[in-house]
Amino acid sequence: MNSKIIIFDTTLRDGEQALKSSLTVKQKLKIALSLENTGIDIIEVGFPISSPGDFKSVQEISKIIKNIKICSLARCINKDIDTAAEAMSFSNLFRIHIFLATSKLHIKSKLNKNFNEIIDMAISSVKRALKYTDDVEFSCEDASRTDIDDLCKIVEKLIKSGVKTINIPDTVGYTVPNELSSIIKNLFERVPNIDQSIISVHCHNDLGMAVGNSISAIQAGARQIEGTINGIGERAGNTALEEVIMAIKVRKDILGVSTGIKHKEIYHTSKIISQICNVPISPNKAIVGSNAFSHSSGIHQDGILKNRKNYEIMKPSSIGSKEIKLNLTSRSGRAAVKYYMNKMGYQETDYDINELYLKFLKLADKKGQVFDYDLEALAFINTEKDETEYFSLSFFSVQSISNGLSTASVKLLCGDTTFIESATTRNGPVDAIYQALNRITHLPIILEKYKLIAKGKGKDALGQVNILVKYKKRKFHGIGLATDIIESSVQAMIHVLNTIWKVNQINEKLKNLKKI
Ligand code: KIV
Ligand code: ZN
Q1: What percent of the chain has pLDDT over 90?
Q2: Which end of the chain is less crowded, N or C, counting CB atoms within 10 A of the terminal residue's CB?
Q3: Rounded to the nearest whole angstrom, what is the distance from the C-alpha of residue 98 to the centroid of ligand 2?
Q4: DSSP state of 111
């Protein structure tokens, strides 16, 4: 049996139909191009009869996408099939995908027909579609709840009538892995002409089993997997294609199949689709979640630093993502602290790991997550009351006027000399005081982030200010905590100044300071 798995993406059809608002033609084109670039074999780009907008986007996509096959959905209705063909007429590589329910439940309560009528409708629609293309796919909707004798019967007739791909959808996400593999095995054993078509599966995730079901179908002989990137789709979504693709790659030893996907494009494509569709990816989502390659517990961090294979079954770079991330939290051990200090260029002899680790734990308890630049500050400045700090605040005052002007004055002790400066701006009191400080230090600091968080509740709450600044291509983090938020802002900036002073030895720059 062929070992190539065809990847059929329906992000623009099954995925899009579940979004809160439909995508524009331009957005769909962007997604289609990104899927093409990832090496997906075939993309279902819409259901053209469903709306003029859908027709238009299928048409535009069919003008642009030339390297992979496109496909459109149609019911067993002549007008649907004709419209699907018309929408894709700019492409010379297209498939028509027809679907009709085959389960007793759907046939009776949704379509009010009998099974023979279903067969007739299906065959006559296939004939119509074959007038436009020899690539016709047929989906037996609700196949996983279809009586197996009925399923074998209709599949045989469909193949005989010229269907190249038979899709077995688990439309309501009801099946479990060995059940779906048994359906596929039955088809292979009982349908005499089965070798003349590709068997595909299309699973929904209502019980969280879409990927597991798809993998078990592959093991039973299915050679096309349908799904969406990030698993978006009706209700709980469709099979997450990136998960199936990586399972095929990582577990080639037992699955013995492969895809033509450019794995390194997966991360990027997933991000683009999440942004365009406005569907955020949960942090713990397999393969593409932000935590998928980050390690938190001290034992895991230590293990991964000794040998990545201890806790890593695939490299983040294999999907085009960044290198491993060790979350610096109170659960981290010394190994992770040393790792980040080393990454920033410090030798173990440059600092005292025991002292640093204790300070790190204290900060992690306070702050939750600690960053590499925090470690640098902890290692080289004394965060306890420190008489040796170069900069310290003597006094400040701010005045904000309703006409929008704010004026701030600040008196700063630099070593053993005191400087005083003031500034007026239209950007509020924090900007005014930062400008006044800058008039004293003249350091080319760029404020990148400023965050004010209330610590505690009600009138007793303290204002914690966290800032991130850029100085000579390096980032520095400052924290200030006080009841007055201007004071916390000043403290945060002074924290940064002291770190820069200690880390970068800026004495030269400060020689030019103007004395009062
Ligand atoms: O879930 C389903 O059954 C479908 C078919 C149209 C393939 O989306
Ligand atoms: Zn579906």
Answers
A1: 75
A2: N
A3: 12
A4: I
Distance of CA 103 to the CA centre of its chain: 36
- Is this prediction's pTM over 0.85? no
Query: Atom of ligand 1 at shortest distance to CA of 14?
Result: 8
Nearest-angstrom CA–CA distance, 441 and 432? 15
Res 507 pLDDT > 70: no
Q: Does residue 285 sit within a domain?
A: no
Ligand 1 atom 6 nearest Cα: 99
Q: Is 141 in the pocket of ligand 1 (CB under 6 A)?
A: yes
Domain that holds residue 396: 391-515
Q: Provide CB contacts within 8 A for 416, sequence distance 6+.
A: none
Whether residues 136 and 203 share a domain: the answer is yes
The verdict on 365 and 498 lying in the same domain is: no
CB 455 within 8 A of CB 483: no
Same domain as 451, residue 350: no
Q: In this predicted model, what pLDDT tens digit does every residue of 140-164 receive, in sequence order?
A: 999 999 999 999 999 999 999 999 9
What CATH number does the domain containing 221 carry? 3.20.20.70
Ligand 1 lined by 144 (C-beta under 6 Å): no
Q: What are the tokens at 497?
A: 């100044």
Residue type, 241: L
Together in a domain, 118 and 204: yes
| Mutational test site, ligand 1, from 8, 9, 12, 14, max ligand atoms within 8 Å of CB | 14
Q: How far is the CA of 287 from the centre of ligand 2 (A)?
A: 22
Last residue of a domain, one of 250, 277, 304: 277
Does residue 477 share a domain with residue 437? yes
